[in-house]
Amino acid sequence: MVLDKSFYWGNSTSSMQTEGAWDKDGKGKSVYDIREASENASDWKVATDSYHRYKEDFDYMEDLGMNMYRFQISWSRVNPDGDGDFNEKGIKFYDQFIDDLIERGIEPMVCLYHFDMPLNLAEKYDGFMSRHVVDAFVRYGQEMINRFGHKVKHWLTFNEQNLYHSHPGGFKFAGSKMDGKTLSDSYQLQHNVMMAHAQIANYIHENTDGQVSGMLAYQEVYPFSSHPEDIKVAREVDEFLNHNLLEVFVNGRYLNSFWKFIENNNIDLEILEDDLEILSKVKSDYLTFSYYQSLTIDHRKIPEGISPNEYMNYGIVDNPYLERTEWNWQIDPLGFRDILNKMYYRYRIPIFPIENGIGVIEEWDGENPIEDDYRIDYLRKHIQAMKDAVFIDGVEVLGYLGWGIAVDILSSQGDMRKRYGVVYVNRENHDLKDLKRVPKKSYDWLKQVINSNGEDL
Question: Is 160 a catalytic residue?
């Protein structure tokens, strides 16, 4: 079974996990630039040095046959203070970066925010807890659209937008202080970020021929048992963490269950006069999501009175039927297929998985390619599950982008041990070595998959 000739194969990354050059060419500091190294984490100052080496990485993507690259513009590289003057050197970098992609037949997909708040906005305004920062983001996003919209046709606003109000580190992702935050703060943050998304999405549709999507870390959560309470909490996670945002992305409205929760729990949600009208205009051209694993929830572990957006901080248990990675991430290709089906048949617009992959501790002996059969096995099973969703279930899938799949990058925690790529980068957490790029065994396999458009797995 061969996928459509228009199918996108590609790579996804963030700026802070790849670029380095933290103080070059007028870049301002982001919240990541002041984080110090620890035992199992690097600092963020060099990453994989793609600021200076991206052409080599693009050459690998081109050789693999990739035709899309989802990358992030660093807000503080193009606008050092977050809401002051724009940095023309930073803008020039991305202008050339985009041209070099297009020259290789690789279509750019731009993400505007991936947790790296400009330090000035974090310290002065508490990140996206402030509507001033929402306005600053909209100004930044509109400027990037004005600069690059004639050659970038695919846009994302926020990486994994549901994590801001559900993940234990959600406030940190939003550039906000973690301490002293309340349930009301969590829901206010969710709304502020959604208003930032809405204004950019509407701007793209009103002023360009580009396409835009809202993105989730889709939470595929199974009930631990057939106990009705397990079924209930799994459903509530799906509604509050996934569908409440998806409903805005597609239909411009929050779910009734969201409004009832706000009312019943006396949550003080500040909604400005025009907010709901702005939200009502929101549309998505397709829906994007990340998927690495499914999760299983046990209602007995959730304390009384906990909000659904926090259930997973308490109730997650191991699924005895699934294998796990060394990071205890459950490997579940059928969960991937299930998400594709649920999203498509509820919202009836194309679905685009833009993050998937397996992170593994790997060491290169300096001579022989890494034998990463486990990566081939993981990717094969997930791509097959996606094909089953297309050819058996009838889901419209636009493409498949792997997370850091082309070239190793720093993990989300800054840990270089956790590698996702088919090309090894020769550095460790505290020893930069020579940053040499070395294809692994999976490189030729992935090239074969892409060149056959998914037929030869």
Answer: yes
- The single residue of 19, 236, 247, 355 carrying the catalytic annotation is 355
Q: Does any domain span residue 173?
A: yes
Q: How far is CA 196 from CA 67, 236, 243, 267, 355, in A?
A: 29, 25, 18, 21, 22
Residue 130: CB atoms within 10 A of its CB come to 17
Q: Is 329 exposed, middle or buried (0-12, 13-18, 19+ CB in 10 A)?
A: middle
Residues 6+ apart with CB under 8 A from 431: none
Axis-axis angle for helices 50-64, 88-103 (nearest 10): 20
> Strand, coil or helix: what is 244?
helix
The pLDDT tens digits for 406-451 are 999 999 999 999 999 999 999 999 999 999 999 999 999 999 999 9
Judge contact between 267 and 278, C-beta under 8 A. Answer: no
> What share of residues in the chain are helix, strand, coil (percent, to 5)?
45, 15, 45
CA angle 88, 19, 60 (to 5 degrees): 115
Domain count, the chain: 1
Is 456 within the bounds of a domain? no
**Contact in structure between 31 and 423 (CB atoms under 8 Å):** no
Which of these is catalytic: 107, 160, 247, 310? Answer: 160
Q: Which domain holds residue 392?
A: 8-451
Q: Specify if 1 maps to a domain.
A: no
Contacts 24+ apart (CB under 8 A), 180-187: 183/265, 183/267, 183/307, 184/267, 184/268, 184/269, 185/129, 186/307, 186/309, 186/310, 187/262, 187/267, 187/269, 187/309
Return the amino acid letter for 444: D
143 carries an active-site annotation: no
- Whether this prediction's pTM lies above 0.90 is answered by yes
Q: Is residue 457 part of a domain?
A: no
**CATH number for the domain including 180?**
3.20.20.80
pLDDT in tens, 340-379: 999 999 999 999 999 999 999 999 999 999 999 999 999 9
